[in-house]
Amino acid sequence: MATAAVMAAVPSSSPADVAEAVVMAEAVPSLPQCQQPVFVEGRGAKLRDHAYSRKQKSLGLLCSNFVALYNRDDVESIGLDDAARRLGVERRRIYDIVNVLESVGILVRKAKNRYSWIGFGGVPMALRELKERALREKSGLAPLPVEEPSVAIMSDDEDEDKMGDADGDTESEKLSQPVDNPSDNKPGAPRCRLRSDHRKEKSLGLLTQNFVKLFLTMEVDTISLDEAAKLLLGEGHAENSMRTKVRRLYDIANVLSSLNFIDKIQQADSRKPAFRWLGSAGKPKAENGVTIAVPPPGKTISNKRAFGTELTNIDINRSRLDSTIPKKAKLTQSGGEILKNCKLSVQKQLGQGSKGGFVYGPFHPAGARKQEPDNGNKGHTDNVQNWESLAASFRPQYQNQALGDLFAHYVEAWKSWYSEFAQGSSMMQQHFGMPVINQFL
DNA sequence: AGTTCCCGCCAAGAC
DNA sequence: GTCTTGGCGGGAACT
């Protein structure tokens, strides 16, 4: 089906390009039908004709196509113009996509007009770092030291977000952090943040991170966009800015949804949808004054999700396995030992998966068993707790430089191992890459 | 009628 | 000055 669409979509592409696009379109069999890569002709609304369908131009679909096009080992550098041309959309839309993808560690900006493809392997670290930042911000601790190379929130330019908040006192300021601004990264560039940074505070990338932080730190895994906007913006803002914020959250949610980081569910008692974080589904909630949108079981209707249920890939067996790793061991283990444990853990889990105990995440390999709904709920809370234990086992506390260095070393080694591991696992590659790694967040 | 969100204008900033 | 980036809100598609 996609072939004709692709041909139409890339009029200026070489046959090789088209073939490639077709291959990629066919390489994502587990995407829901609505997310199958579909390349439609772009040229903007001016061509809004008989066949115009808003769904065919959604950011979510565009994101799926973008990922389908570039989620490969041999892709290293992505040109925005090239992406726009191949996807048949305006460059403006590509900015929206890459900003969100960069926020979750899938891409990293390399230069003007150019991004590096990191892939889904960058997500765990990005989310972990986001969570750590958010927790520190929440607990009033000093921000993390100037960032080391986390893919996700790597800020190759400026100091941490220490400036006094320009406009406020709201939750958004508490959560806010700098966003990428590579152009500042040059000798003589001003290091202080002035009014111009106000613009960045509202960037889609930063908003994405803050949105994700809500899920990562607030014990909330379902929230409506209105609520998210209130939390991010603070109460008492003008109706207009709230509307604008919600619009942007829709954009972000659609992209994250297409990546299966979140899932849109319909609240039973209102028309407004809520979004559920797939990384911690089933987690106990209700805290921090957030109105939880999760209705009683059976009262929500999932609008999507044809495969997988979690970003975290937790199950009982793995949790037991994980719990064998001493929680506090991180301070005494060498980096090598930690890495070894980490690898062993993942390998065991993979083995279990083949025996039926493994639960894949949203990037569920086609040949693998999906999570059984019943099993998925039973003991889920325990899973989450064990998952947290595991995360704690590998999470550095940055209490001193030596530990920080040790962790950096471990991270590098781990990344390198993962990249080898990922290459060896065609199944995983075929499905966006990384169901297993998520657990280490 | 309310919600969702695509679209492109245009300003900020880089060069 | 041109080009890149991306905030923003109008308004059309969708429910």
TrEMBL record:
The cross-references to Gene3D superfamilies, in alphabetical order and at most eight, read: Winged helix-like DNA-binding domain superfamily/Winged helix DNA-binding domain
Under SMART domains, the record lists: E2F_TDP
Indicate, by first and last residue, each region the UniProt record lists as having compositional bias (Acidic residues): 155-170
Segments carrying the region annotation (Disordered) are 146-197, 363-383
| UniProt superkingdom | Eukaryota
- Its chief place of residence is nucleus
Domain (E2F/DP family winged-helix DNA-binding): residue spans on this chain: 54-119, 199-279
**Per UniProt, what is one GO molecular function of this protein?**
DNA-binding transcription factor activity, RNA polymerase II-specific
What do the Gene Ontology cellular component annotations say?
A: RNA polymerase II transcription regulator complex
Among Pfam families, the record links this protein to:
WHD_E2F_TDP
Keyword set for this entry? Cell cycle, DNA-binding, Nucleus, Repressor, Transcription, Transcription regulation
Q: Ranges of Basic and acidic residues compositional bias?
A: 369-381
**Key word Repressor present:** yes
Q: Which family does it belong to?
A: Belongs to the E2F/DP family.
| Protein name listed in UniProt | E2F/DP family winged-helix DNA-binding domain-containing protein
